[in-house]
Amino acid sequence: MESNMHTEKPVVLGVDVGATKILVGYVESDGIVPLSRRYAIDRSSRVSTIASIETAITDFLEIPWSMYPPLAIGVGLPGLIDATTGTWAQATNLPITSPVNLAAQLKENFKLPVALDNDVHAATLAELHLGAGRKTRDFIYLNVGTGISTGIVFNGQLVRGANNCAGEFGHTSVDMNGVACECGGHGCLEPIASGGGILAQVRALLPEYPTSCLGKLFKLDQLTASLVFYAANNGDLLGIEVSERAVRTLGFALINLIILLNPSLIICGGGVMADGWMIRQLDNYIAAHALPFVYHSLQGIVLSELKADQVGLLGASILAWKSIGKT
Amino acid sequence: MESNMHTEKPVVLGVDVGATKILVGYVESDGIVPLSRRYAIDRSSRVSTIASIETAITDFLEIPWSMYPPLAIGVGLPGLIDATTGTWAQATNLPITSPVNLAAQLKENFKLPVALDNDVHAATLAELHLGAGRKTRDFIYLNVGTGISTGIVFNGQLVRGANNCAGEFGHTSVDMNGVACECGGHGCLEPIASGGGILAQVRALLPEYPTSCLGKLFKLDQLTASLVFYAANNGDLLGIEVSERAVRTLGFALINLIILLNPSLIICGGGVMADGWMIRQLDNYIAAHALPFVYHSLQGIVLSELKADQVGLLGASILAWKSIGKT
User: Fold this and answer.
1) CB under 8 Å, gap of 24 or more: what pairs does A208-217 form?
2) What is the pTM of this model?
3) ipTM of the complex model
4) Do B260 and A169 make contact, defined as CB atoms within 8 angstroms?
């Protein structure tokens, strides 16, 4: 009986578009995902990218489903999104070089309300409504994966900024005379402390550390940030150099962020944060270097309670629920 | 007739407490100040400081006033304020070393609703409701005077943070290996780019620039940041060194702020901004160094439209209007 009641809850359709896959799923308002499926994305062109999203949704909706049909569609996407008009304006890791009104297109095709937003904004909304952010009105969602990005919540609201691109913490510069970043800036955080940056530094420094255990893993294409941290913990000098620089630099930038925004919580997500090592190091760094009143106003720097492979989908579902006034 | 209608508008009592004076005034909801008076502050002790505020209000209320009596009292104060409980928790430039529930005390004495807040938060609210911030929902108020502080407005709301101390931009570090700041941090913005910092650097560098015109002004105690900028514009090498460093450092930190928060407007206040020189330099710096999409999302970096000597009082009045649900 209870199980039956559960499966009869209304759902929305969440769509989490990443650089290499599309995750589509039904999501209940409490974040339960009764059905989801992963699809490939054909990123060879703008047209094929958009067609991949439409095909994935079409296929998913054809899966036999005896419960409520979805009430709305929410889509989280990488890049620059105009959430008000539902326009996907631009992306760097997918070939979206001119704007597409994806919301209008999906609405026309699937006859449902559609909401779009940036994937990190969507994940931040998932933390606010379903994750650790439920307990506080002022927090930072810090995602460190291939890149680095943040979502900022104040007064219980997502800070979008003038062009919906607030939260670009990865391109905070920590050194005005630092090395050039691919964004065009200098001394950005991302090439030093992101997963992509950590691996690139290991590769660049390998010739100086011929005995490092990381060399072999790198050549086998098996290296991850987590293995770099593991190597550092076990005394590997290359691992220590790269991971300590990442901690010091990210910690420094985080203290500036905490002083500026006075959040009560930092919720961490993304592959680099997943094993907890970086979070512990950052907590130590902040405790040692931040002014006491700053550190004490922060309740903690914690790992997301949401499943890493679902947070994007949950975020997309929040967009959908919001579009029909249900959140 | 119109004049008479005007003077019959309801007013609140604004109190702007600075390090050296207290400005008390009646303020109408549209920001008109029909009467104000400046009082000295006896900062010899915690008790004398608080007594100065109470005496100023008492004296002001005794000035003959035939219009509506004030509906509420709003007080802007330096330091750390708990705006919810009305507690003045701590200040550094006034001897408030232990918390005082000033709101409760003033309410008891004057039998009116009382609201307190930090002076920069109050000024930011003045910009939001009466100044250039009326035209936008996402802006930064950047005050550069003796120190540096910001107020952050998103979604039309002041960002207070967990402990009501969001906006401490002056202690953003621009160099983790930089010189020690009196806050306990290293490489902070304030000693480089604030008015106090600019004068301190001129003093420190005077021996290296014996022919600088700034030396005499400094000795006569007449030097201001504006005169340092004027000297720089006229080729004085000491003026150039100090002012260019201030521009470069503040510009660098501002670009990080703009990338992180994506504001549509930066509204500048404070003595260092008043002559417009620093604003023009910052605009040039940001145009030259920020990513194009970041610069283009910013509508401008502009001088406050509010009178510099009234913005604190206006901000205090907004606190008062808010306390009675009128804003």
Assistant:
1) A208/A238, A209/A237, A209/A238, A209/A241, A212/A236, A212/A237, A212/A238, A212/A239, A213/A239, A214/A238, A214/A239
2) 0.93
3) 0.91
4) yes
